[in-house]
Give the backbone structure.
Amino acid sequence: MNALTFTLQKSLRFSINCSTLTPSHLANKSISEISGLLINYGKNQLRVDEIFNISGNVGLNIHFKNTSTRLDYLGANMASGCITIEGDAGAYLGFGLKAGIIRCQGNTLAFAACNMLNGLIIIDGNTGDFLGGASAGLRKGMAGGTVVVKGNAGDRAGDQMRRGLILIEGNVGDYCASRMVAGTIGVLGKIGDYACFNMRRGTLLITKLPKLHVTMQNCGTHSLPFLNLMFKSFEQYNTQFSSIKARRVQRFVGDAACNGNGEILLISDT
């Protein structure tokens, strides 16, 4: 059965909210009903078929083709199924994701995996600021699930994150794991300034030591056998993290200004 496919057919001047175009929301709708759904566009509303060419069959799989960064909230609040984005995505990719898989084959703007609850998001390119963070007005960010970024991430990755796993194969901007409550973030590339600022709990796993603020305390080098099991568990995500064999890490704890229960683990051998 062919996946339900939305092919962007026009250059967008304004961003559009694509949160209604998920498997769980479109279930039991016909192609004609989907075509007639209205989406806000600037001051106006457009039918879905005025924006996308629609093909395939309604089901658990949705493909977006010829996409752009004007498409916001792709996969928002999705509770089942799989979305594949053959191109770039806008802001709030996978916002509030409850279950299912989202794969973006390009880049995304800010707030990817914002307020995510469960499921899996894979971004083959780069992503913007506040990956796995909290949306405006909320005090808690990502609360579960897994995010894999093959490229780079912007500032504030994992800001206010409370649970889940974020694996970033590239570089990350400033304030990584800021205000983190719990969960695990792994970064293979470089990290900007102020990592783990106001971190309460959680783990930041890194391979390159950034400049840390004075409230992060060096606890020396340790052998941690559980790391081998953790890296092995990453094999299911087809990520570079699964090839790491290290068991020894240099451990830093903090932020001491916030009770110091978080940790940075610097891999000392790979």
